[in-house]
Design brief:
By secondary structure, the chain is of the alpha+beta class. The chain contains 14 helices and 37 strands.
């Protein structure tokens, strides 16, 4: 109830602000209401009665620390772009069922207002499916709680009920920001690349009709509604219906006329629109960093901007990628695999969403930015470019206090967070226990009749599994590798499972055994099914910001390390001949007055959090997999000493230090075997 009241008060405040802004703009235009629509006779957009084309750049508020929104938007404007395009992720704004978040990094209204203040128009893409290398393609993980076989992107009763509830909250709040209401939003995209979803049958189109009608119900009849699909006739045909204007996406290379012929098949008249002109490409852990040459990209963009007597509109995906903070990186499924594992492999996306875009992950201008700005200056007004932010090298930071995973689950969680300790007869996926992302630890005792050493088999899991003994022996496997039998010599069985990102590809046919995380199915010892489990929801008690509220005060983890941690001289985390997953805590007394990059030489795989005014989960690090070797960290908005909290899963250097450097490294060496 408190969350609901807080949400309603915040929305009311935003509505008043938007209405005042809209009224002022309408008065400024001498009483003429602004208009934005499609002219099917002139084959163009009409903005206030005149043919108009936009040059947009994709940039997501939820991948940028809010202190830098204006800086990034100014750099977009300075390069001659007229418009910013952004998704609006369901799972950012509703991190838990009936809990709404529109504050901090989720304050989409402030982002819209900042863009409009700078003279930029906006295209929003509220999905509900987004893709965009984002966890579950933007769907909230709690959709899978109590309904593991839920079909998303279909006209299914339970799913559509949740979609309607979400849009009833979001869409009315966007109305004051629509262009014809005096705001910056000139168009709204419905769904995303829906033509790639299968099967392309009557039920497929029925879902899209339902979405169209929901959008119209809440946004009215005047707003331009778009769809986008890949540039093939089959995809475009399956991705569009009457009442939604069809657009295409493509990259540099190929013939622009051929690309736009696909759009013309669906839209015989109207503007030519490329809704995603790719500036680079997505990146996975353990794979080569993808790059696109600046000159090649500029040549392709030149052809688009010249097309049809310079009337085609375009949005560059991405202009600035930013960062997949916390647990929000998506995953790519290997749909054709089914021979070496029990279910499709999944390749986790990197924490960095640099995308080889014109602005780097940290918002710095690049050579690609300069080349594109020079090109766009022939078509649009450019402005002075803001200076790049200062980066600092500092430290090293000694993570001088630590305790292992057994200390957390045996001494701390049962007393401090008992609600995150779940008793079940059989192991359950994390979503069914109320956790959407991250890590879960499962424990049980082997029955007396099971002889040691015991052969342990886990039916299915998502996505990386660690069988841990207190003697220090740790056995690991991944869903991307052949099934493995674990051998244990202790009666107490401990299994830690890490999720490497829900698939963001949007297919529905693997809803049960593909999307869920944690242990999925039974665990056996010498062939006997094990019962009576205790699950510890690790990521419920770790920092969840910036997308979800934390379960503790900012001082909590400092207090826990004072009470339970041991100092660096004892080099904790190592028992006998193995490494036990361990938490580390350290402080940079000088604070972070500038951005930096966290270097983790000697560390294996884990998560790093930084304490600003509250804990901020910077995301995963995995230097042994690469190609990303350093984690971007924005400056502290308020200054002062900065604390770091790490959870290392696989190995740590003896000195337990991290380094802060002023140089990024997202395209380093990589090792695909780590996945």
């Amino acid at each position: 109830l408190l969350y609901t009241i807080k949400f309603e008060i915040m929305i009311l405040s935003r509505l008043v602000s938007a209405i005042v802004l809209a009224a002022a703009l309408i008065l400024w235009s001498e009483g003429k209401a602004p208009t934005f629509k499609i002219d099917y006779k002139k084959d163009c957009y009409l903005r206030d009665g005149s043919c108009y084309r936009y040059i947009a750049g994709e940039m997501h508020y939820f991948r940028i620390h809010p202190q830098y929104w204006e800086d990034r938007l100014l750099k977009l404007r300075a390069a001659g772009f007229t418009t910013v395009q952004t998704y609006i992720p369901w799972n950012v704004h509703v991190p838990r069922e009936d809990v709404y978040n529109f504050e901090g990094i989720a304050d989409v209204y402030r982002y819209l207002e900042t863009a409009w203040k700078l003279g930029l128009t906006v295209i929003v893409r509220p999905g509900p499916f987004l893709a965009t290398e984002w966890d579950y393609g933007g769907f909230p993980g709690w959709l899978l709680k109590d309904r593991p076989t839920l079909d998303v992107r279909r006209n299914e009763t339970v799913y559509m009920g949740e979609v309607r509830k979400w849009y009833a909250k979001l869409l009315p709040t966007l109305v004051p920001y629509l262009y014809h209401e005096g705001g910056p939003i000139i168009a709204v995209q419905v769904e995303n690349e829906f033509g790639s979803n299968r099967p392309c049958d009557e039920a497929h189109f029925d879902y899209l009709y339902q979405l169209r009608d929901i959008y119209r119900q809440h946004l009215g009849k005047h707003v331009v509604l778009l769809t986008v699909d890949g540039d093939s006739h089959a995809l475009a045909k399956c991705g569009n219906i009457e009442g939604l204007y069809s657009t295409v996406n493509f990259g540099s290379g190929g013939n622009v006329s051929d690309h736009f012929k696909v759009e013309r098949q669906q839209e015989p008249r109207g503007p030519f629109v490329c809704s995603a002109f790719f500036s680079g490409w997505l990146d996975h852990w353990g794979h080569r960093f993808a790059k696109t040459k600046a000159e090649h990209l500029a040549a392709g963009l030149h052809d688009v901007l010249e097309f049809n007597d310079r009337t085609a509109s375009v949005s560059m995906y991405m202009f600035h990628g930013g960062t997949n903070f916390a647990y929000m990186q998506g995953g790519r499924g290997d749909w054709n695999n089914g021979t070496t594992t029990q279910y499709p492999r999944l390749w986790g996306k990197m924490t960095s969403y640099d995308y080889d875009a014109p602005l780097s992950e940290a918002g710095d201008t690049t050579w690609k930015y300069q080349v594109l700005r020079n090109l766009i200056s022939n078509y649009s007004k450019v402005y002075d470019v803001p200076a790049n932010t200062t980066k600092v090298a500092a430290g090293p930071v000694i993570t001088g206090h630590s305790f292992d995973i057994f200390t957390l689950v045996e001494e701390i969680m049962p007393q401090k967070w008992p609600e995150s300790v779940i008793k079940t007869l059989y192991p359950l996926p994390m979503e069914q226990m109320g956790q959407n992302h991250g890590l879960v630890l499962y424990q049980t005792k082997l029955p007396d009749q099971v002889t040691l050493p015991a052969a342990i088999n886990v039916e299915m899991f998502g996505d990386r599994i660690y069988v841990i003994s207190k003697s220090g022996e740790v056995q690991m496997n991944s869903r991307n590798r052949p099934p493995k039998t674990f051998t244990v010599n202790e009666a107490e069985l401990t299994i830690l499972v890490e999720d490497n990102g829900h698939s963001n590809t949007g297919h529905v046919r693997y809803a049960y055994n593909y999307y869920q995380k944690g242990i999925i199915g039974n665990v056996t010892a010498n062939g006997q099914i094990l019962r009576d489990w205790t699950a510890f929801l690790i990521s419920e008690v770790l920092p969840r910001g910036p997308y979800d509220s934390n379960a503790f005060s900012s001082e909590t983890w400092s207090e826990l390390f004072k009470k339970h941690g041991t100092s660096v001289e004892r080099i904790t985390g190592v028992r006998a001949d193995g490494y036990i997953p361990t938490f580390y805590y350290g402080t940079l007394e000088s604070g972070l007055s500038h951005d930096t990059y966290i270097d983790t030489p000697g560390w294996g795989k884990g998560y790093i959090n930084v304490l600003f005014d509250d804990w901020f989960n910077l995301g995963r690090y995995w230097p042994v997999a690469g190609p990303q070797k350093r984690i971007y960290c924005p400056k502290s908005p308020s200054g002062g000493a900065t604390d770091f909290l790490m959870f290392e899963l696989e190995r740590a250097p003896n000195n337990q230090t991290i380094s802060l450097t002023d140089t990024p490294l997202v395209d380093g060496p990589y090792d695909s075997s780590q996945q």
